[in-house]
Amino acid sequence: MRKGLVLALGLLCASAASAADLRLLMGPAISTYSNRWPALYDDYPFDGSGLNPFMNYKAGVAFGLGIGFPIAKGIALEVDALYAGRGADYKLWYPSIGNDGYEESHDLKGVSFPALLKIAPLPRPFPYFLAGGDVTFILSHRRRTFLLYNYEYDDQWVGGGGEDFDPSTRKWDFGAVMGVGIDVPISKGSLFVEGRYEIGMTDLYRGSEQASVKTRTFLLILGYRIGGAPQ
Questions:
Q1: Architecture of domain 2-97+104-141+164-226
Q2: Sign (positive/negative) of CA torsion 46, 178, 228, 223?
Q3: Which residue has better confidence, 102 or 159?
């Protein structure tokens, strides 16, 4: 499977080398899970995040390449390959015993292949809109836990260990993407900024418990477009 991903990335890079519209992409990724991932012996009452990517969020980074294909005036198709670090963070405090607390941090790493239709109804400097789908191959899923001990002289987070959640995680995540962007021309291309919101449609949890865990991700893409027709 990973050899297939390497081949796909190689083909994308080869196509990008000869494409008139190559895009370099990078930016922060804010992500969370719609519900907390089930874990043996853990019974803490965390609220679900629903559709909000900023609740129980994990901050990561995404970077990669894209290829743009103009379709008509003001309309283009873009296909990307992005490596992204996602996941979720959960914190719980115990006010009855001071500020002692518990935290668990999920690291979900994967390679994403978004296909996006970009529509610019008005010329620059007005923004354009994007919508499409995304397929992510999940490379790894780990969880780390921490305990906060509130001492009189200092507060200390102590690592409680780590767990490999790969066995209970599906390998493919399918999602819907929507967003908005703005494009600023420069001498031989353009700089652009995009806000992308992705709603994961796949229940990633495949364990024995009754649970439904889906990804929610906000990407702030900072990019540079080399050549090609104006957006």
A1: Beta Barrel (2.40)
A2: negative
A3: 102
